TrEMBL record:
Source species of the chain: Carassius auratus
Protein name as it appears in the record: Cytochrome c oxidase subunit NDUFA4-like
TM stretches of this protein: 20-37
Record keywords, A-Z: Membrane, Transmembrane, Transmembrane helix
Domain of life, per lineage: Eukaryota
Amino acid sequence: MFRTIYKQAKKHPGLMPQFLFMFVGVSGAFLYLIRLARGPYISWDRKNNPEPWNNLAPTYQYKLVAVTTDYESLKKEGPDF
């Protein structure tokens, strides 16, 4: 597959930006998928830790980018389970 891409890129140099943007897009999607799979709301081990989201601190930043929320100054709301 990579050999074919290399041959096409040598024949048609105008395809180089397309291959570059495809590589960057696929890599970004793969890294974001890994980030989601390692998140606290995914339960890979249902027997030992069935609800891992209950073990999070109230200052845990859930979002990738939080523009207006200051997670350092949050207080815990709700009971402990």
